[in-house]
Amino acid sequence: MAQQTKPHRRARRASSRAGTRTAQGDKTRREILDVAADIASVEGLEGVTIGRLAQELGMSKSGLFGHFGAKEDLQLAVVDRAKDIFVREVADPAMKAAPGLRRVVAMIDHWLGYVERRVFRGGCFFMAAALEFDGRSGPVRRRIAELSRSWRDALRDEIRRAQAAGDIARHVDADQLAFEVHALAQEANWAHELLGEKDAFARARRGVRVHLRSVSTARRRNHRA
Amino acid sequence: MAQQTKPHRRARRASSRAGTRTAQGDKTRREILDVAADIASVEGLEGVTIGRLAQELGMSKSGLFGHFGAKEDLQLAVVDRAKDIFVREVADPAMKAAPGLRRVVAMIDHWLGYVERRVFRGGCFFMAAALEFDGRSGPVRRRIAELSRSWRDALRDEIRRAQAAGDIARHVDADQLAFEVHALAQEANWAHELLGEKDAFARARRGVRVHLRSVSTARRRNHRA
DNA sequence: CCTACCGATCGGTAGG
DNA sequence: CCTACCGATCGGTAGG
């Protein structure tokens, strides 16, 4: 939440609007999107109405709207801003762990931490967006699906790296294992946000630990926690 | 979807409206709620607007609205109708399995089947409703949470039954195991609805099988699938 | 169950 | 960035 590393890594997405973007305009835009992503995680992306957002930011509807071409463009911008935050808070920190088994654990751990310390007010932005948009079509849904899939794929790739390094048994299906540890983290988000269970994160961590130990080549204890 | 067993098990919920309810009125009401639950599973409970619903059913807004006192009452009625359908399609069929380990497997199996054969057009009604309402407050959110928790609790209770019967090792944490198998089924819904992965159900089933085998007292093969 | 209406809010535009 | 608007739709009501 706090660290402001890499201030200029923001993707230079092609604006359908004016080609001229001032530094101040970019800053305003980012502030709008931060508020929008927070609202979206609580009330849904469709709950981010232009009037609501303008009121919360103390600016006029049309003034705010000028930063985006249409509501769909606003939604896409919010999703991409949420992705940048996810990368900063989860993916990047996990990269500090050694490749392979350690990094798989770190990825899940930072993911759970990002939900637990409320990077977004309503829990994991992407899980909320996924369930909200999975029944629709169009570019917003596609973008949410693409980013969600790529995160799970990153988990699988790291599992494969662990197998190549000999940390995880070769016979294990990496896709299956990624499916299962991904499931545990998502379940923690669900249990925490809906049921208010604070031990959900500990449960997910324990599940991941036991699970990975059972496929680890280094195990010497049995499968029990 | 097809079977129409137990036609009169519908809960006699206290209508805040007229005390007189005709058989025809009840039938219309149920038809409204079936359409509403289907829409809600795809576009969200908040997407079930009175105008939209009236148009889809070919009746006037006020005519439809007369069946409910306010939008919130409509939402509560939709949730309870979805619960009846879930019980009919998942919980009741699972009760035909022998108590204990067999029934735990049957509960997950029927749950996955209900998503797979599209009982609701947009996948699991309750998972969509959970992520939509977890950031809100009020009676609708509470009802969704209560029903979701009770289903996971039912899984845990059945696991305990399996332990009492000696099918599952006594040292296993039933809450933890319920958390994990529940996670696998929810992940299958997520992967199927968002990513369109048809093998998600097989993955969840495989995960549950391997998982339960690892805690089963009857196991003789090793933990591999 | 209906028609006819209400104020509020939606996404979006015109013009500056 | 603003004010001032637009038609459409929202939840809801009056009166029958």
Q: Describe it for me?
A:
The structure is a homodimer of 225-residue chains. Chain A has helices spanning 23-43, 50-57, 61-65, 71-94, 101-116, 125-133, 139-164, 174-195, 200-215. Chain A has 225 residues and is mostly helical. Chain A is elongated and about 60 Å long. Chain A starts with 22 loop residues before the first helix and ends in a 10-residue tail after the last helix. The model of chain A is unreliable at 1-19 and 221-225 (pLDDT under 50). The first copy, chain A, binds a DNA duplex (16 and 16 nucleotides) through residues 28, 49-52, 59-66, 70-71.
* Average pLDDT number of chain A: 89
- Oligomer kind: homodimer
Number of helices of chain A: 9
- Structural class per helix/strand content of chain A? mainly alpha
Alpha-carbon distance between the termini of chain A? 32 Å
